[in-house]
Records
---
Amino acid sequence: MDTNQYLEIFIEESKEHLQAMNEHLLGLEKDPGNIGIVNEVFRSAHTLKGMSATMGYEDLADLTHKMENVLDAIRNHKIAVTLEIMDIVFSSVDDLEAMVNDISSGGDGKRDVTEIVTKLLEIEQGETLLPPVVTREEPSVSLKSDLQYDEFERTVIEQSKEQGFTCYEVAIFLRADCVLKAARVFMIFEVLEKCGEVIKSVPPTEKLEEEKFDEYFTVTLITQEPAEDIEDKVKKVSEVDQVTVIEVANLSMNGPHQEEAAPAQEQKQMDVKQETKPTVKKMDDVKETKHAVTNKTIRVNIERLDILMNLFEELVIDRGRLESISSELNHSELNETVEHMSRISGDLQTIILNMRMVPVETVFNRFPKMVRQLTRDLNKQVNLEIIGAETELDRTVIDEIGDPLVHLIRNAMDHGIEMPADRVAKGKSAEGTVKLKAYHSGNHVFIEIEDDGAGINKDKVLRKALDKGIVTEEQVLTLSDRQIYELILASGFSTADSVSDLSGRGVGLDVVKTTIESLGGSITIDSVEGSGSIFSIQLPLTLSIISVMLVEVEKEKYAIPLSSIIETAIVKKDEVLNAHNQQVIDFRGKVVPLLFLENIFSVPRQDDNDRFYSIVIVRKGEKMAGLVVDSFIGQKEVVLKSLGNYLTNVFAISGATILGDGQVALIVDCNALIK
Amino acid sequence: MSETSAPSAVKVIAFQLVDKEYALPVHQVYSIEKLMHITRVPGTVPFVKGVINLRGVVTPIIDLRSRFGLTDEKYDDTTRIIIAALDDTEVGLIVDGANDVLDIPLDAIEPQPEVVGSMGDEYITGVAKLGKRLLIMLSLEKIFK
């Protein structure tokens, strides 16, 4: 069979499955008793095995198979999860990754895995002595209800019973003339969620939300409240006809037979199971994960998205043109049509931009494993906290940001976090924390890497920088703390006394800096010696369409990016003060210097007798400045264009855009104006 | 474009600047545009008049008169912008008028002329004599510098 055409899909999907395995294995390590997680890993491994066998990668299939056997043994409580086993499973996943990478770079995916295979076999055959981690009673009484529970759900039900909860099956009949069934279902779920935890419903929640059921559905609830109370509460929801609450008695373990008998049912249960995470869930979580099940995705080549984006940019320009033509003509039907078109293209723009947006999760999710490995290599104890992994960034930025982050995290772990003994001696907990945090702010995304380690020793940095000739003695005196910290990003710099395998060769951090700057971002460092450092990366959200404020200076129009505008103001000329030959204004208690755009851009001047200045207050970081213009035109979405190869490095101009009337307006680079 | 022209001739665009005719090889010329609104770009050399919107592409404009140090003249109806490209740099050149597309036999092109008049000859690659017309062949590389 010619499998070439599937190769790309195979590689993509294999990587996804490997990533899923990694994540779940890490989860399993934290929560060794959780059979649900083992099932997830098993599922991924199984799919991978099937795919690689089909594609003819026997080694890959073989190793996956061996690993699957071990997982199966864990699943069936023949083997307990231990650190050693996890290590072996992890390293076999590493091997699998290496094989897949080999295939994607054109190799045949072969690799010597005998050692790891032997180890896996040893586990599988040898160490079956330990008792299972989750002890479970083996109830045998037959069940009253007609609902079937899979293994996982049964575990949940039994565990909750042990803790003094009761499990009920609530059968709800809606009135036949009920109009908004989905709404009723939602209300009922809300009532039930207040009483306890809903672990299952038949039909499944997504079917219920789509109103794909008759008047009747059943919900399994774990609660401490008595059955009558639940019945009464549910009945309070209007349009509910009848409610019956039955206690779920002991569950029989004959589930598998039933499942075989009803494969369709089983399928549904699998779906539910997939959604239902080990701990009993909340309704909104169920909804969220529901998307994961129902969403259908296709893979699109990024180039096609780029083409789409380019075409759309042209459309945006024409839209602007249409808008100005229709406002000139003042024809009501034309106006309506154009307005409608503007709205639609606005939506279209959001969608296209969103299509290019990828959650940073895709970058972040490789870090937990890396940190795990590093903690062992360095003999340190480090806990990685990830916050805001759902923050989205343009795809092109995502592709570039991975390596710099790897460097920074390694740096934080190697240089930042101290050895456990040192930490205890300093009165900190032995385990260090590295926090990786992403969030949106304005038109930017910030990614912060924070550690609670030793912080940066300013003197040491300065001495080193002097040694290496990065700064001179005179410069040292004028440097601010931040500037000193930023010296460690200079090329040829390294403060670690011993060069380790990870970092300390002074080649890493300057690459980080240049990569980030090439993406139009910036990096700043804050540090408190003894209690840690924060590396903060600022990145642009998207690269092509931006919101600007159009202003006029004499006859010329300029665009100022909204992201750097704080607000606009109109100030009387006699309110302007002079300080050191610099005109300033008092703006909300702060002294803000004024910059006259007509001077900066040497606009041909005509007389003006205006008593007022129109001022756009812009900022760069903490600093502010007031740009004096003649008038404000308004806010606009524009397509960012470059000035071409011929005009490079024009002072204080970051690019150009085409306005509705077909003219070019220049975009002011506020960062260049504020020192 | 017909590529049948023998290597013995070169196709050029001829244009007017003050009282002389100049020529650029046709493969370096993308299009000829009528004068349109030019947005001034501050902080550039004086002969860069600004940028225009050329069907969605922001294109810089050089005024050839000021580039060659000739007298400035008000733009009029015959003023044209010749969009020329060298590698991936696209630039518009303001000229007094676009005249013709011509085939110049290679043997009609003479190298460096002895006397060229008022303008600096560093922009010139040669002079072609075609009947009574005298065409000055220009080098884009030098103009773009």
---
Amino acid sequence: MRILRRSMLFIPGNSPNMIQNAGILGADSIILDVEDAVSIDEKDSARNLIMHALEEVDFYGCEVVVRVNAPSTAFGEKDLREITPKRPDAFMIPMATEEEIRLADAIISEIEKEEGIEVGSIKLVPIAETAYAVESIADIIRTSKRIEAVLLGAEDLTADMEISRTKEGGEIYYARNKIANICKAFKIQAIDTPFADVSDSKGLIEDTLKGKSLGMTGKAAINPRQVDTIHHVYTPSQEEIQYAKSVIDAMKEANKAGKGVFSFEGKMIDAPIILRAETVIRKAILAGMLNEEAMK
Amino acid sequence: MKINKVARAGTMESSDIFIMVQPGDNQGLDIRLSSVVIDQYGNHIRNVIMETLKSMNIEDIELTANDRGALDYTIRSRVETAVKRAL
Amino acid sequence: MKNILGREIPDSVTLPNRQIRLFSGVQVRHEDVVKKSVKTRVADPTEGKVIHDIKKAIEKSGLKDGMTISFHHHLRNGDYVMNLIMAEIAEMGIKDLSIAASSIFPIQAPLVKHMESGTVTGVYAAYMSGPVAKAISEGKLKNPAVMHTHGGRSRAIECGDLKIDVAFIGAPTCDPMGNINGTEGKSACGSLGYANSDALYADRVIAVTDNLVVYPACPIEITQEYVDYVLVVDSIGDPKGIVSGTTQITKDPVGLKIAKNTIRVIEASGLLKEGMSFQTGAGGTSLAVASYLKDIMKEKRITGSFMSGGITGYLVDMLDEGLFKCIMDVQCFDLSAIDSLKRNKNHQIMSASMYGNPHNKGALVNVLDIVILGATEIDLNFNVNVTTDSNGYIMGGSGGHSDTAAGAKLSIVVSQLFKGRLPAVVDEVTTVSTPGETVDVLVTERGIAINPLRQDLIEKMKKHNVPVMTIKELQDVAEKMIGKPEKIQRSDKIVSVVEYRDGTIIDVVYQVKDQ
């Protein structure tokens, strides 16, 4: 986990007003979208606008991801070829299959070499949005070393499954489970599908918690107003951080005293609890809630 | 590069610029600009458009721009797209 | 001569009946001031006050060439009163009048032709927008318009700097003896706070009503002993223009980001506590600040003392939810505010003098904790322009801006760092409306700057991990994105004199260059 991706915020790729303000909206990642947000007639202008934006707009340290069209399409190939030289942090690949990822990886590698960019530095985030992709996600992840996260795309997935998409999300329980578990196995991030009803803040909290409870590590947002809520769910609370710090401190004490197993607040502390505490601390540091120095 | 047909790019939304290009009448770079910030940035915007056209080796063009407060990157991009569409 | 802010005030600037004093800092001198004596025509008990003919009312008022007449702006962009009266005055051939309106709106467009014909040669206002402001900017008014603050207008009227010969007071409900009530009637506008000084200090006062009721018109806002005549007309205003629809909290992510940053400043300032007082405008971003404030006050179980200024439904909801104990209302912006005024005894009307007059025995702004303000431009010394736009046209005015900035413990200017490529932070503002000495914080979507005069605030921000920048750094952030605008050309003719709330001259506005 190099960077935190609690939230990944979609920004329409042909809107200068949204693009130049994207970096101040608080999201960990922003996704400049040339796929669904852009009509067929405007793919060229959005692509060009994103190229210029990557060169000139300050995104204030946000991770900048470009969602391209599927690499096997003419649009997608052009997106990758033309945008790679402008060095986005990552590309998001829709309708992911092994073949799409292989294609994307090959094109990016080719351009990286041509442009003198370190090969492999541009990352990939496949979207699992078909029944096939959910089922084959492990194979898809194995296809490229560039993959750092997988986004679950529930709208297309449920369409593919011919089932209805509900607010409660019972229909994507399996997909969330599967994606979360496999991503954890590969030590990459699992990004939950966005919550569609922008005005329902309570629904957003519930939906985000649902994803988190199954092991998702972040969530896509389709409106800047969703970012704070998502962060609230995916950022360790002050209580969690305090507890984790205490566990680590107690562990250090125990180590000094040469004790392997120790108890803290009357509870035996073993490896899983320490691991959990360490994860909380790492997230808190990445979220800027803890000073790294203070933990040394 | 030669402009062969009428083409457009951009929108009339805030922070965007709408560009329309068409083949010139051997008058060189003929730019007609209207802008919500014409007094403050008119000359600058005109320069950005000129430079973009020159960098694309366009020598003869009629370009109409309606600016809604676009930043330079947007102006460059919309001019490029309009020209590419007109080639 | 240059004033203390370095603004050139040419010696040619003159004001009727008084000496020019240049702005020399906001410090209020605790000295005796004398209010003007008021001429009162003793009423004839056998004669009624009610008149049904506009011309007759004007004749009875004794209006002559060269006089000053006043209007209030509580009917906002639905006001028919000024247009009705001015049309008749023009017809009667009276010339060279000055209009002292608390504010001027687009609906008052007919004033432009009265300016061109010489019927009107002077204008006083705290705020103006629309065709009249444009015409004045283009030099169509004979004498420079005097722009003051809401509190400054009361001060000027009370001390006689601004002598009103006849006040025409739009009265949503009125009785035959001239008792005025703002909350009832088809043209209800709620508070009549800006008309109060006019009623008390004008030589003649005419209530203009479209809802004459049986005596007495309770609850009475302006009482009969100040009113000479009651002029009854068909309609004093268009309800659609009087009250706006409910103002919505902004959905613009940039506006929300500004509001969030503002809340961080408020939290870190230490003023977010039991008994706090708060004022904000009716704009979408200002309301977003109120909305976030509401959440935090609920969470921390804080009850504030009062909210003040122009009142919207959003503030009414906060009152109803018990987050504040009172509303002090100088002007109602919407129906919900008027309704609250009628039903809630903790929603109280205040006069403009009580609100912001610096030369009385204490204005409300002096006990205000936090005010959220706007800005068209702000310079590196935090001087704010809310009077002219970036092309030099008048499009606003201080209103209560300078009054609240001077009084509040924490005055926060909220603004996009640039809008349509025009920067908020500039080397030199087109017009100084409010002196930087009274502006504590600038909050933008890309950063927060604290006035170096407020080292205490800078320390508090540091302590609470609120990132602050210098205002110069903020300017640099903007210029990196938008470049530096060219300076606007203007002519040498002065079209407006801008008064600070104490009556000193803080700036002048020049005629725009011919287009």
---
Amino acid sequence: MKRMLMTLGAVLTIGVAAPVSAIGATPKDVLVIGKAADPQTLDPAVTIDNNDWTVSYPAYQRLVRYESKDGKGLSSVTGELADHWTVSADGLVWEFKLKPGNSFADGIPVDAQAVKFSFDRLVKMKQGPGEAFPDDLAVTVVDPLTVRFTLTKAFAPFLYTLANNGAGIINPAVVANEKNGDNAQAWLSGHTAGSGPYQLTAWQKGQSLTLEPNPDYSGPKPAFAKVIVKIVPEASARRLQLEGGDLDIAEDLPLDQVQALSKTAGVDIGTYPSLRVTYLYLNNKKPPLDKPEVRRAIVKAIDTGAIIDGILLGNGKAMGGPIPDGMWGYDPTITPVTADVKEAKALLAKAGASGAKLSFALSDRDPNWQPIALAVQANLADAGVTVSLENLANATYRERLGKGEFDIAIGNWSPDFSDPYMFMNYWFDSSKQGLSGNRSFYSKAAVDDLIRKAAVAATQDERTGLYNQAQHIVVDDAAYVYLFQKNTQVAKRDTVKGYVFNPMLESIYNIDTMSKAD
Amino acid sequence: MSFLTILRRRLGFLILVVIGVSLITFAISHMIPGDPARLIAGDRASDAAVAAIRQKLGLDRPLYVQYGLYIAGFVQGDLGTSIRTGRPVAEDIIAFFPATLELVIAALMLSVLLGVPLGVASAVWRDRPIDHAVRSFAVIGISTPAFWLGLIVLLLFYGRLGWLPSGGAIDPLISPPAHYTGFDLVDAVIAGNAAALVSVVKHLILPAATLGFVHVGIVARQIRSAMLDQLGEDYVRTARAGGLSRSRVVLRHALPNAMIPSVTVLGLAFGDLLYGAVLTETVFAWPGMGNYVVASIQALDFPAVMGFTVVVSFAYVLVNLLVDLAYIVLDPRIKEIG
């Protein structure tokens, strides 16, 4: 018996410890992407999840797209369906001239009517992506290739919102699939109806989605005859499949798995600075955090560099202000704060808050949050502040954030469109207090004035100037603790060529211009 | 009491159980803090936009009205529309549930096919090496977390040996069989699609073995103990004294009697496997309901959670009803059941 068990144990040990052999390589004209979860819905007017956009983004075209230069994705935009556009002096009327020759996957041309249909639907449905567009947005067909958008209030980031997944142009023929006045939502949840380079041809729920080229796409013919998005919920299994060659790209791998993979032959890890920011909300309404000195003391006590090195294994960039590096409006003169416990203690003493007791709310939404919270707890303990951690269910945590029932809380933020508005106006406008953006419940009339002006100002230079002024004020007020912008790591086989990372398009791949080497 | 009366009475209970389950699930899912309308609208949406979605979904109505409307739809076969996917819940259940059922049935068959012979052998050769081996195997099975075991077999049979695929129900590069029943294996046979059949079988082996592993031990122990009871009975000694061979006595006389209590274990195992399938599905990327339900719970997708709970509990109660009815067939002495 003992011998039997020992033999079994030996076989298992040798088997498991032996090196992985690549058992399968996907065909050259097929790209296989491994994802942790099935997309929820592919309807551009409904989804607000990058996990869905992997499939929906390449299936649709938009009026504008993000540019790339020398293999690097930029946050600036250029025309995609639009050939050129004009904007009125007051910033209220935007007129787009469409390029001729673009067609949906059923051969119907993309015209101004389709643009109007898509935006009217988006605004009418009022789901997540509609939030970026004003309710009273009026879309008019001027002629088959000219479409006009009329706003009632100037909104400078408008152009950038048009590169969103939500601004995808949908084939008006989908109305045939409408049921009980659902605007074809149920149908578009599981099908695509766009003019992008690829279209969804099969979805085996919970298992895989297959994209194939749109025969009527006006651009160059893509290299992949099939792009398969495979659902592999377990991270270790995704890693194994990437090593084994059954996946070309594996998403969402934990840092330790990525580190291990970086030494694996045939696997290539790309590391890119992202615009995903992790920061702490300091409840500006609740004593003692209503005093700027106390907030400054907290900022001063936290050793962000140690958090980046210890928890992110160096895969992040410390932030000094709210606009991250890579977004226009970023001010390099606002440098990250160096931790100084002595100064933190002095500030606390000055504010009469030595020995303060604070709560720190977090959830299991991000596996890094708990170690960060523990690090912050230790840093603040050094400064004499006692922090009690409250690890909450995510739904409860969000509810508490919305109601302002916390002292300190942690969160991530990534921009929906490439405009500093996403950081400055959402985080600091006193009218957005709560879950919608201003989660520190910050309020200052001078800042409201500057950022509201920046939201309607005509030129980028003028807007940058206004945002810079506001940035200096809010950094001095220590409204939040800006921790870091995390690097995005993309693990792929080294045969995959031509991938361009764009910080605005996380989990979205330029599958129309990528290819595979032999 | 006649068989039909018993059946009618038990079916009545079944309806009561399903109503009870739906009521409890409804109550629990509405007690969880959080707002599904906010999840749809996104964190950055205004309160007015969230309120509009809440109204559209009917979440602003009193709870009893929401429940009443749900039940009214349910009896007409309408399980509502998923908040998360925007698709009818019934459509999602049809997409995901058969895969789970297929995995559970395969695991159950495996545990019976391996567990029964092991249990019999263990009882017949009591206290001999085979008995020790089976008992140790049962203990290892019961105490091995399915999640861990799944990763180990994946590493071994996919990562190292390359014998079996790593996950999913069929190779995504193979065109799947047409949907007749929703069970890939059955559909592949009906369609006569040999490539799909081979792929489906290969994909089924590891998850079914992992899921069934625990129950092989449980079934073996149950059969062993029932067999030991039977082998000690007078009729066995009499049969042996009458000149019947040992194998004939064991297989033709003792085993059928030992199977009766074991049927209960199988009914319970079905429920256990349904529950255990969630973790196994995650490891093996099995396209069953596990991941769908977890994602639905996280998104506070009440209609989806309700739909699945009711369907799964219905299946569970139905299987246990079948088990009870099987008693009557297996043992003619039993005329009345609960």
